[in-house]
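Chain A, query sequence.
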Amino acid sequence: MAQEVEGIKLFLLKSNQNGYFCVYLYSKICDMNIYNKSTLSRFADQHADTKRELGLWYNDVTAMRWAKPSDVTKDYTDARTVANNRVIFKIRKDYYRLIVEMNYTKGYALIVFLDTHAEYDKIDAETVIQFRPKKNTKQMKK
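Chain A, predicted structure.
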């Protein structure tokens, strides 16, 4: 039995001793979080023609609640999903490509590639990592 309260799905089971109790709580409580937003800002500074569209893309994505790849392509019909939970977005139609690795469960998006279409043609979208996440220096000191 499932009940939805303000976007939160509660799955309830009957207990022999205590009546009903919650056994599973699933929700996309928070919207998508873009892990390395500064990548967009730096790229827009270097390519002024992308500033507006990257800003719109950022605002759209951070407001979304995607649970699976088909949710992305439903909202962005020109986006394409590939292996490793990656999505390829067209920026300024065919001029630039943005590849994002999604963690649908946790609601994270990591930008792994952002460049011109010509540079995109030279890489493998399923494995490229142009922007590496910074390592946590506290963990490295242990």
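The chain has two domains: 1-29, 33-120. The beta strands are 2-5, 8-15, 19-27, 33-34, 80-82, 86-91, 96-103, 108-116.
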